[in-house]
Amino acid sequence: MRRTLVTFLTLLLLWALVAQVNHVLSALHLYLFVGALFVGYAALMLPLRDGLAASLLGGLLCDATAPVAFGTHLLLFAAAHAVIFHLRDRLPRDDTIARLVVVLLANLGLFLLLSFSQIGRAPAPAAAWPRLIADLLCSQVFLALVTPWFFALQFRVLVLTRVERDPLA
Amino acid sequence: MPFRRLATARPFFTLGLVVVGWLVVPIAVKTFLRASFFELTAPVTIATSYAGGAQDVWALRLHSQGELIEAGRDLTRLNSSYEFSVQQNTELQGQIARLEGLLRLPPFGDYRLEHARVARREFSGWWQRIVIRKGRNFQIPVGAPVVFSGGVVGRVTEVGALTAVVELITSPNLRLAGVVEGDTRPISFQGGLNPTFGPPRGIVEFVPLDVFASPTATKRLVTSGLGGVFPPGLTIGEITKADLGPDGLFKNGEVKLDERLGSLTEVTVLVPLNPE
Q1: Are B193 and B250 members of one domain?
Q2: Positive or negative torsion for Cα B262, B264, B269, B270
Q3: Among A124, B190, B194, B204, which is most buried by a count of CB atoms within 10 Å?
């Protein structure tokens, strides 16, 4: 329970920071989507129940602040969590590059699924894709920059709250 | 071996349980959850907005006295022209009231102007919205029109205790009836074309055949006041293209919207005084 809540608090911080970046980028008509970061650490490093609960809470947080059917992010994040958790034993999950690749692929999948679910409302769906691709590219670059930091932050917060033990201590 | 297979399928079994569980959760619980998480984010949004405001104030304090004097002088000139406009406006309001009395016309809807600071902007390819720093605490209703100096901003779609969400006219979810300035025939407007780095655009349908527009000879599109919450005459954008539609009865076209919609900092909510 404590592990879930602490992880969720880091997700709340992530949401606030990304919202601020998007606020500034709105003048350029750019938008960063970092859905995979809401799932990545929980799916790769935490036990199934605690990790999934944190991912679901992250999904609810995103759902409450987006004009989508309530539960869209929740179900997408749950699916991403299940897939990553299923594969995690076959991945070198302590390696930063491997974590980064997992997060980038998961973000690509989530972005495309969300785009397909939303694009039907656009008056000219084909005309919307160049914009979506630009957003996706910027999001992936942003993710590549912040994922190592955010994973380290989540681990450090869990150590500070004595949920996890520091292997170096 | 079967146990091992079961163990590997556990995440997907759990996912199935989550999906089924979510489908059977009553709507009331979902509504409560949505409202709870929305209100959970409101203090974060407001705190970051106030922090940004404080940052701006300290940045402005670095300006020299000379710059302040210049700004004050410019403001005085602007105020005198606005005072003149206010006098003209009062005169015109009086004329409208007299004509309404003479012709026994129903009066136009009256609004209370509620100015609000923009706390958060979201300008994605999927949706475009802003969060303002006023909500139920200022009696902001759902559906209220929102405007700024450049015309229509959008419509209030969600109201929280301290914040409200405004869907922008650039969003594909927002449709409204407009007219070409000086014309009375309604045209359907929908947002939704928002290229990166470029001005937002929308589309118009059911444009009369005798309306011609091109990038060099644009037509101003304003709200019609028909079948919606927006009062008539507010600027929506400039029609830059109008081509014959597939049915041959009407034209379809494109509208260039105000570029400032992506960088709004202050908006005005028109709160109806006599909601029907």
Answers
A1: yes
A2: negative
A3: B194
Q: Which domain holds residue B35?
A: 10-60
Q: What angle do CA B29, B32, B34 make, to 5 degrees?
A: 110
Does residue B5 belong to any structural domain of this protein?
A: no
Name residue B262's amino acid: G
Closest approach of chain A CAs to the CA of B114, in angstroms? 22
What would the two tokens of residue A161 be? 């709250």
Instruction: Please list the pLDDT of chain B residue by residue as tens digits (276 residues).
Output: 566 666 677 888 888 888 898 888 889 999 999 999 999 999 999 999 999 889 888 988 888 888 889 989 999 999 999 999 999 999 998 998 898 888 877 766 678 889 999 999 999 889 899 999 999 999 999 989 999 988 899 999 999 999 999 999 998 888 888 899 888 888 999 887 788 888 888 889 898 888 888 888 889 999 988 767 888 888 999 999 888 888 888 888 899 999 899 899 999 999 988 766
Give me the CATH number covering residue B249.
Answer: 2.40.10.350
Q: Rounded to an integer, what distance in angstroms lies between the CA atom of residue B74 and that of residue B72?
A: 5
Most A CBs within 10 Å: which of B5, B8, B13, B18, as the mutation test of the A interface?
B18
Given CB atoms, is B197 within the 8 Å cutoff of chain A?
yes
ipTM over 0.95: no
Q: Does one domain contain both B258 and B182?
A: yes
Q: Is A56 on the interface with B (CB under 8 A)?
A: yes
Contact B120 A19 (CB under 8 A): yes
Number of domains in chain B: 3
**Is B11 in CB contact (< 8 Å) with chain A?**
yes
User: Which residues in chain A are closer than 8 Å to B14, comparing Cβ atoms?
Assistant: 48, 52, 82
Q: Are residues B183 and B258 in the same domain?
A: yes
d(CA B195, CA A129): 9
C-alpha A105 chain-centroid distance: 11
B145 found inside a domain: no
CB contact under 8 A, A26 and B121: yes
